[in-house]
Amino acid sequence: MGFFGRLSRRRKSVAEVVFDDARVSTTYPDWVAFTAMREACMIDFVLLAHEPARDRQYATVLYRAAMTGYTAKQLLTALQTAIQRCEQQFGKIQGHAGRLPQAGEIAVTGEPPDPMYVNCARVTPTPEGVVMDFAFNFASAFVSGKVRILHRVVVGFYLAETLVQRMLSEIRDHEFRFGEIEIDV
Prior knowledge:
Layout: H1 3-7, E1 18-20, E2 26-27, E3 31-36, E4 41-51, E5 56-67, H2 69-90, E6 106-108, E7 116-117, E8 120-125, E9 129-135, E10 146-156, H3 157-178
Parallel strand pairs: 1-10, 2-10, 5-6, 5-7
Antiparallel strand pairs: 3-4, 4-5, 8-9, 9-10
Helix pairs in contact: 2-3
């Protein structure tokens, strides 16, 4: 095993990374979609609009994050922990007031934004929901320094729970087809 093979065994945990919060754009989505492909995973954060005359839902993708399965699995673990803390403190998360639409029931308006590749995510629970900071660590995974946050997404606990359920399903299916994604290397 070469020099780089030994280095790739140890990655920094998110707790070891210093985030730079200056000038961060923030998104407050209504709906979320998660897709796991062979080489990457993608999360779409969506704003919904309803047209009563046609009884149709329209969606605009506000932010699209692309990441490796490794980063997606770390994000999933952090979201699950945040939701567990919330439920311990405030009780079981209540369902959404209305039924959230499924992917086939929504007409996407306009071109979705280009995916922003991220390799680092931080999840912070608040009394009202979850704040997800997405970043790209330009330095080596072993060098200390600030990581600039590319985008911040704020969601309520119900939408966070919906994202967790979709991620669990997609990642299980992905691991069944392509093998386990190892996060404790």
